[in-house]
Amino acid sequence: MSRIFSGIQPSGELHIGNYLGAVKNWTQLQHEFESIFCIVDYHAITQQYDPERLRVRRREMAVSLLSAGIDPNVASLFVQSQVPEHTELAWFLNTITPLGELERQTQFKEKSARQESVTAGLLNYPVLQAADILLYRADLVPVGEDQVQHLELSRVVSRRWNAMFARATGKTTEDGAEEREEFFPEPKPLLTPMRRIMGLDGQAKMSKSMNNTIGLLEPPESIWAKLRPAVTDPKRIRKTDPGTPEVCNIFHLHKAFSSPETVEHVAVQCSTAGWGCIDCKKVLAESMETELVPIRRRAVELAAYPKAVDDALAAGADRCRRLARETIDVVRERMGF
Ligand code: ADP
């Protein structure tokens, strides 16, 4: 059975961009693949953070993931810092990664442009991410579109490590070079149809760091307070103007939350000016409630029973530590340790 690995930062609440772009997919994939899901707290400290809040958010993220449907009896869910081999492998991979490859990463360029001083941790973030994935020798990585470039770097790092340190098979390749075993597979992205959810401002992707999110566990009044003024089709100024659903972020969210019949109805009402944008948003809010009510209910139950969360994370970490050790033992040996 192929193995999948994916991670999420505990740097803020789980938002519907994360949910639709990644986590909802995880809840289905866990039944098809051997699945490892990680709360990547070492990644979260590459941006400014408050240590006390990090402690709280780690747990909140675990509650959100379990509420969203990650089943710890089926998949392994754990916290990255509980398995120190992640940073050990990252160090080894850092030593074979050219600086230029890291400086070219779009997320690094965007994030570093927004801050005065840039740390080596932010630059090396994708190497730690490569280590996360390669440590479990994962074949597939379910992520949103924003992570595809990082994943490409993981593939390059995997190939490079194999070429430098994997054992020779004793055979030669077609072009006459020495063939090497593929100790690390080349991890491939698994994208969802909802690969890029835009923020409510319609300007940038929905992201914790952009303050344009709807939280997965947010109460309905608060969701409505954000939906009501959210950007729609910019050309639709009056209620009597017909809209173009395909350019509207709210219509995009309908496709994620509403039934196919409702989506069709919404498209007709929008393009014939039958409904105003507020009517359309009210229907979206109802569809969201249908999906989010059970998730919120599970979160309340889990918050009242912290032992269930701790047990799930401990079992996940135990299992992943064993797998990680197997990989690190080979890496150390092949790299001369
Ligand atoms: P954020 O960008 O909010 O800090 P993370 O970097 O922790 O989120 O990403 C967690 C997962 O959620 C990744 O797989 C990422 O691709 C996905 N993701 C994040 N934002 C979005 C979005 N706006 N649309 C789709 N997927 C997203």
Provide a descriptive summary of the structure in words.
This protein is mostly helical. It folds into two domains: 3-197 and 306-334, Rossmann fold (3-Layer(aba) Sandwich); 218-299, Tyrosyl-Transfer RNA Synthetase (Orthogonal Bundle). Helix content is 53%, strand content 9%. It is built from 13 helices and seven strands. The chain has helices at residues 16-29, 41-44, 51-68, 85-94, 99-103, 106-113, 120-135, 148-165, 220-227, 249-257, 260-271, 277-303, 306-334, and strands at residues 3-8, 34-39, 76-79, 140-142, 168-172, 178-180, 188-190. The strands form three sheets. The protein has a three-stranded parallel beta sheet with strand order 1-2-3. It has a two-stranded parallel sheet with strand order 4-7. Helix 4 packs across helix 7 (120-135) and helix 7 crosses helix 8 (148-165). The longest helix has 29 residues, at 306-334. The protein is globular. It binds adenosine-5'-diphosphate. Adenosine-5'-diphosphate (ADP) is lined by residues 8-9, 11, 17-18, 21-22, 143-144, 146-147, 195-197, 205-209.
Order of helices and strands: EHEHHEHHHHEHEEEHHHHH
CA(first)-CA(last) distance? 31 Å
The total tally of domains equals: 2
By secondary-structure content and strand pairing, the structural class works out as: mainly alpha
> What portion of residues is helical?
40-55%
Largest sheet: 3 strands, parallel
What is the number of helices? Answer: 13
How much of the sequence is in beta strands?
A: 5-15%
CATH superfamily of the largest domain, please? HUPs
Could you give the count of β-strands? 7
CATH fold node name of the largest domain: Rossmann fold
- Which small-molecule species are bound to the chains here? adenosine-5'-diphosphate
Principal-axis shape equals globular
Q: Flag low-confidence runs.
A: none
